[in-house]
UniProtKB/TrEMBL annotation:
Gene3D superfamilies: 3.40.50.970, TPP-binding domain. Belongs to the TPP enzyme family. Pfam families: TPP_enzyme_C, TPP_enzyme_M, TPP_enzyme_N. It comes from Microbulbifer epialgicus. Keywords: Lyase, Thiamine pyrophosphate. This is 5-guanidino-2-oxopentanoate decarboxylase.
Length: 542
């Protein structure tokens, strides 16, 4: 390039320098000059059908890959349409970079009624971003991008929002594109040596230790498994941590923190090692009462504020989860004797007892959970929405690898997440992906099926059709509240899928699921598999 690059061109170039490969966005009149910088950047642009879908796709992309998902949004409605998805990512600590336009600098705060004008747009996003910045000079862009990626890669992640006035996109930048480089990422912080010594002493002398892992431990599974084996400690996972430790491991008690038998074991432990977890009610699948720890509590988290969230620790370690557990594992001796075998037997008994605590209606869904486990490859990714069957898979469907469980049933708990998030996950990975969503949730983001067709994704989309908001219906029944607003007229989903250019089929027996999913994996287009949920069909007829 002989002439000076524009701000938009430098932005695209820097995204590639920071190893971004795909971006999700819908062009608008305010981002025309932004998109002028896209050709020649080697970025792949994915066009969703709604900005909420763009941010959900970026979320799924980030969860499956561990790299930031990136969105391009227009001023005003582009940002507010994406707000719910950004808030879900904020709640679940998912790295997401949102680049939005904002009106020209001379119009900001003037109330002139400009197109897409949102007074104090930056204020709107601050509530669900870890950092928000409004660019005022084009020359600031490299520094702002460096700060954004340091936050996304080297601290507790979440959405970062950078808004750029539309008059800055075509602004010339100094030098040439080759002059702009990514800043070096910070090395992850390790734990203080004194803290590691104390934790080692407590764990090696514990008689009944327990390990709790949260979503912040995604990269710490191997070290956590080795520590569990050394000290003969059962491992329990938050919903965000499913798969971080292989749930086939005999010391892994799964994501069952909501059940009384697990609560009793954790509360009676003499040492609890809690890593990367908020210890929140959504970790426990909406069980509100906090754990009452009777023994010593060690907490490890990259975010200092989280170290005292929901439970005060006896030892607080503000550091990277993987680095800290690797340090701990390197010095922790292996316990002698038959303690490990006893703990394995204890975990097996706890898993049996968990099933006895299942809520009403679960037994009839267990065959579907088992069929789904048989259908999902060992390293497959399950993406779930807030729907009846997903609340069962949260606990009863074991996963074997990190970044295998992508769900909105934690944290913010929105609807419509699973379809676009599964698209993002599949676009980030060669691993097989299965989406599970309810009929009500699917209607939130059904239009994104067109994106999966365009991208020729072999994506099975399981639609749990119970003719309404079944989970809320169950809660209404339990509270003896009349069913209002929860019974829906559902469309012919198979016909809709075919109208989009996708495949579609309908099943009503668990034994049919594996064949349908395997057939979907062999296609060059998504397949919508409608499941007639138990009791759902009767309500549809009514």
């Amino acid at each position: 390039m002989s002439s000076a690059p524009t701000c938009a061109q430098v932005l695209m170039h820097l995204l590639r320098e920071y190893q971004v490969e795909k971006v999700f966005g819908i062009p608008g009149v305010h981002t025309i000059e932004l998109y002028r910088g896209l050709p020649g950047s080697h970025l792949i642009h994915i066009t969703p059908r709604h900005e909420q879908g763009a941010a959900f796709m970026a979320d799924g992309y980030a969860r499956a890959s561990g790299k930031p998902g990136v969105c391009f949004l227009i001023t005003g409605p582009g940002l507010t349409n994406a707000a719910t998805a950004m808030a879900q990512a904020y709640s679940d600590s998912i790295p997401m970079l949102v680049i939005s336009a904002v009106n020209r600098r001379e119009d900001l705060g003037m109330g002139r009624g400009r197109l897409h004008e949102l007074p104090r747009q930056s204020d709107a996003s601050r509530g669900f971003c870890i950092w928000q910045h409004s660019l005022t000079q084009a020359e600031q862009l490299p520094e702002v991008m460096a700060k954004a990626f340091q936050l996304l890669q080297s601290s507790r992640p979440g959405p970062v929002h950078i808004e750029i006035p539309i008059d800055l996109f075509p602004a010339p930048m100094p030098g040439q594109l080759v002059d702009y480089r990514a800043a070096a990422a910070a090395m992850p912080p390790g734990a203080n040596s004194t803290a590691i010594t104390t934790a080692t002493h407590w764990l090696q002398n514990a008689q009944s230790p327990v390990i709790l892992l949260g979503g912040g431990a995604q990269s710490a599974g191997e070290a956590a498994t080795q520590i569990a084996e050394k000290v003969a400690a059962p491992v329990f996972l938050s919903l965000a941590a499913k798969g971080v430790v292989d749930e086939r491991h005999p010391l892994c008690g799964g994501a069952n923190l909501s059940f009384d038998c697990v609560r009793k074991r954790v509360e009676n432990a003499d040492v609890v090692l809690a890593v990367g977890t908020e210890l929140s009610e959504t970790d426990r699948n909406l069980v509100r009462d906090d754990y009452a720890f009777s023994g010593k509590l060690i907490r490890i988290d990259i975010d200092a504020a989280q170290l005292v969230c929901n439970a005060n620790p006896d030892l607080a370690i503000c550091a990277d989860a993987a680095e800290s557990l690797q340090q701990l594992n390197a010095v922790l001796p292996r316990r002698d004797g038959d303690a490990k075998e006893q703990s394995e037997q204890e975990v097996a008994k706890i898993l049996q007892d968990c099933r006895k605590e299942w809520w009403s209606g679960s037994e009839e869904r267990f065959p579907w959970v088992e069929a789904l486990r048989e259908s999902l490859p060992d390293n497959g990714i399950l993406v779930t929405d807030s729907t009846q069957l997903a609340y069962n898979t949260n606990h009863a469907l074991p996963l074997y690898h990190p970044r295998s469980h992508i769900t909105c049933t934690t944290g913010y708990g929105t609807l419509g997440f699973a379809l676009p998030a599964a698209i993002g996950a599949k676009l980030s990975s060669e691993r097989d992906v299965v989406a599970l969503i309810g009929d009500g949730g699917l209607m939130f983001t059904l239009g994104e099926l067109a994106v999966a067709v365009e991208q020729q994704l072999p994506l099975p989309i399981l639609v749990w059709n119970n003719a309404g908001y079944g989970e809320i219906r169950d809660f209404m029944d339990a509270a003896e509240v009349p069913q209002e607003g929860v019974n829906l007229r559902t469309p012919d989903f198979v016909a809709l899928a075919k109208a989009f250019g996708a495949k579609g089929c309908r099943i009503d027996q668990p034994g049919q699921l594996a064949e349908a999913v395997n057939a979907a994996f062999s296609q060059k287009t998504p397949t919508l598999i409608e499941i007639s949920a138990p009791s759902g069909a009767e309500q549809m007829e009514e």
